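Good morning C.,

I know you're traveling, so I'll keep this short. The sequence:
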Amino acid sequence: MVLMVPNLMEVFLWIVAFSYVIVVACWWYGLFYLWRMRPDAVRLEPVSSWPVARPAPSLSVVVACHNEEEGIESCVRKLLLQDYPDLRIIMANDRSTDRTGAILARLAAEDARISVIEIEELPPDWTGKTHAVSRAVERCATDYVLFIDSDVELSPRALITVMDKACRDDVDFLSLWPHLDLRSFSEKLLTPPAMFVLALWAVPYTHGKDVATETMLGNGQFLLVKRAAYEAIGGHASVGNELAEDAILALKAHESGQRCWSGVGDGLYVTYREGDFARTVNALARVLIGSLQKQWRILVGTQMLLAGGFAAAWILPAALICLALSVYPTIALTFLILAVLHWTGMTLTLRRAFALTLVKRGSLLWFPLGAVIVTGVLFWSAYLLAGRGSVRWGTTRYRVHGSRVAPLTTK
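The C-alpha cells, ready to paste straight into the viewer:
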C-alpha cells in the first residue's frame, strides 16, 4: 500500500483556501446583516412639519468655514430654507483669505437669524476647526446645538426631522453617517474603500423593537447635541487638539451614559467631495488616524482591504490560469469557486451599502484598485501615528501624537 503524502505547497494552498473561506463568509454575512437591518433603525424619515402641541426647543446651527467662497452661500441658503420654529445660525469664519468673509457679511445683513464670528488667530493646542466652533458655541444660548460642515447641504425638512427625533426620544447626542456626493475621480476611487474600513468599527447595532444604537459615531459633518450634555462632557474645549474631535466627543458621550443615537444621513443632508488626489489622500489620512486612533486598528484595516477588497481581483484570474495549465487542478477549482463567491458577495454587499451612503452608486469595478491605494494610505497613517511625518489641515501642518496633533507650520 502506497500512502500519498501531499507536498508542502499543497498543504500551504489548502490552508490559504480555508482562510479565504472566512473572507468570503464575512462578505455574505455583511450582505445578510444589511438586508435584515430594519430601515427605520438607521434612517430618519423626514417629517412634514413641527407638531403644533409640542414646544420647540431653541436650536443653534454652528458652521466653521475657511476659504469656502465657492460653496458657503449654498450651505447657508439651505439653512435659511429650514422651517424649524426657533433657529439661529452662527458662522465662524476661520482666518479665510478669500471672499468667504464678504459673502457671510452680506448674508447676515439679509437675515437676522445669522451671526458671523471672525477668527483672527489659532491659539496653541487647538486645531483650526475645533477652535472656531468652540468660539461659536460661546455665542450660543440655545437648548440644542447642531454642528455641520460648510460643504453640507441640508434637505428642506432636515432640522425639524432630527429635532423631532431628539425630543421624542430625549436624545442627548445624535450623529448621522454622511450621505456623500463624490464628484472627483480620486474621491470616487478612494472614499468607498476608506468608508469600508471605518464601517468595520462603527456598525450600527439594534435589538428588539427598541431603536437603539451602541455605535460610537461622531461625525462632525452632522452632530446634534443637547447643550447641557455638551457642557457635561467638556465641549470642544476638552478635545482642542484632537485630530478627530467628533469621534472623541462621541466616546465621551457614551462613557458618561448620555442617550446617543446614530443613523444614516440619506434623505436629510448631502456633503460633496471633489478634492484632487493629494487633498483626498491627506483628508482620508486625517479621518483614519483620528477615528481608528490605534496602530493595530489601522494595520488590521490594511489586511481587511487586501483580503476583502483586492483578493478576488487576482485570485480569480490566477485560478483560471492554473486550471488551464492543470496545476493543482482541485485546489485551483476550489479557489475559482471561492473567488466567484467572493466577487458576488462583495458586489451585492457594496451595492446595498452604496445605496445608503452615496448619492451616486460607487464603481464596483474600481473598488479593488481603490482598496490597494487606501491600503497605502493606511500604512502612511500608521507611519504618521508613530510620530513621523506630518499631515495638513487647512493651512497648518501637524505632527501626530496618538490621536492628538501639534501644529508645525502655518502659512
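Safe travels,
E.
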